[in-house]
Predict the structure.
Amino acid sequence: MRITFIGATHEVTGSCFLVEAAGKKFLVDYGMEQGPNIYENVEIPVNPGDLDFVLLTHAHIDHSGNLPKLYKNGFSGPIYATEATCDLCDIMLRDSAHIQMFEAEWRNRKGRRAGKEDYIPAYTMEDAMGVIRNFVRCDYDKEIHLAEGIMVRFVDAGHLLGSSSIEIWMTEDGKQEKIVFSGDIGNVDQPLIKDPTYLSQADYVVMESTYGDRSHGERPDYVKALAEVIQNTFDRGGNVVIPSFAVGRTQEMLYFIRQIKADKMIHGHDNFLVYVDSPLANEATTIFGKHRYDCYDEEAEELIAKGINPIGFTGLKISITSEDSKLINADDEPKVIISASGMCDAGRIKHHLKHNLWRKESTILFVGYQAVGTLGRALVEGAGTVKLFGEEINVAAEIRQLPGISGHADNEGLMRWAAALREGKPKKVFVVHGEDKVTEAFAGRLQEELGYDTMAPFSGTVYDLAENVCVEEARGVLIPKKTPITAKSAKAATVFDRLLAAGYRLMEVIRHNEGGANKDLDKFAKEINNLCEKWNR
């Protein structure tokens, strides 16, 4: 009876854990790594075809995104998840496969001209469709016997529609141990979905720590702030363009706008239109509506009881085809346009930016995190011009950010969740799914304030749950290995920082030349490649 830590160890993404108990081998989550990859992850130490099943906490790609790859490599067992998670994975894994295949096609067009071997995508649409067929729908709060000696229960984690913490009871050689996987623990008072469920007992806990070192601060009056932006923009005769993540944040925005309309908070533009221009967002919104009776919170349920759709209202327009999308900007009537991607790096949002960035009347409203290097980040940081589809666009629109309602619990929310377990004090709490220093710091806080025995394992660590002993404690292997800065190397480090800054500037120049003449771009690429060949030593 043991657990092997594979991913999301001293890192925030790539959640994956192997559990062996009662003669069965199974994974809890198998997610993609997203963003900076800090530490090496060990491979799953068993053949995918030898896995008996998978338990999935929720649909976000950093928890589910590698499941088609698992299927591709021979896994054919069931994947147990809540009903809403199954439905969201149906659209999100297909979307992920589309991205994988598109990237491979793009790379191979370039690579073949350079005589390179074909790039093979992580998985294809066929793999995604294959693994989706293996999903098994599970109800919240229902004990499910998966095999002799293994019983599980999914409870609402309050993070995303269908998200769950998973309780697992394992019996082996007459001894029973209970392990809880927290999944991503949700923030309280989120729109639409319920608050996280607090559990009271576990022998072992695998707990996330995404925001283990920070507080979200005072909850903003999101509706009031959003209404002010819409009112001011419409009074100028402009559009409010909202780059938004398709699953979760888009539905929150619809919830707020419904309230704004119901309370008549916009004056002089009573019947304003709101366009959702993202196929994935539209599918996700349909799934949210489908699960209103099993996933919505009391406030949303009260609206439904009154015959009110919490994320629907008069003036909501759904854009399906690319032609629908083009027509949105065909008239000058002020409107709200919600489109993906949330960081402006792909998708239909780029077309809406092209039509609105140059207009001083319009507002580009960011409602989510903008990663370094994205177009969204450049706009938030004050870019004066950007290049879209080969055309240089002057940024005259008002650029605004609204504080988002995070889907993750902050440090105090995490502590409340952990403190609830004191009734049946865990033998060990494993802290995962957080940045390097955060996992260590939060593990220390759990030990100091709650008296828990904690560990922040690295990938490859193996723990015996029957004997409560670490069988193999792995060390973190950095990617790439970093050389400690000493007094002697300080000057060299400063020079390297300048080199790194030059690299970032080069990326900006590359982005600036998007859409340029093929001849010029080819010459530019050759110059960069020649430079790389010279210094690749």
